[in-house]
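Memo to structure team: turn this sequence into structure tokens by end of day. - J.P.
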Amino acid sequence: MRLAVISDIHGNWEALQRVLDDIDNCRVDAIISLGDNIGYGAEPERVLEEIRARNIPSVLGNHELAVNDSDFLSWFNSLASKSVMMTRDMLSPASIDYIAQLEPYRISNNCLFVHGFPPDSCLTYLFQVSEDEKKQALEQMQQRLCFIGHTHTLELLVYSEQLLQSHPLPRGITRLEAPKKYLINIGSVGQPRDGSHHAKYVIWDVPLDTVELRYVSYDIAAAAEKILAAGLPREHADRLW
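Reply from structure team:
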């Protein structure tokens, strides 16, 4: 089993299209999304149509949460809140219904998939959690691995014998070690904030016990121009670079 894990597409069709092309060339058996498929970008409907057409399972992200329940708009800053409201107006009834059915986490192959922080938060950022809280979460986690997104950055937490280590998640293949537990922050397809403007995603090879971080180039200018043409905040376009 080779599983592609994608996260934080954020309505960026150009980035998603190139990532899916890359996945199609990598002999992957399945794909899963860690949420925030929408928000910030200009083509949330097109992104969700593709996710549904390919039957890609997804967990609930904070942007989906706010589209589904406007009470959570106050959690966002003013520009992000504006983006959420505009994004909702771009979505079809079918996409709204799809979002309403998303769950906060998924479990597969002794692995937990969640947007923000285990076991089921789509709002908590990894950098908000203390080392003791991270240790406790990993101790209580029944699964060996957990993939997360939300921060748009790359990080690998390794937990073994009450020792927690944090490393940057490197480009290329990382070999995992049993019986250590891992929390893997995989970055963003549609709006990376890790110092590189490439779209990012990972391939988890279950039998080989490896995670491969892949960088994918895409037409950033086209995605940025669409954001501006849609009347979304300019900041969302500028951050792509």
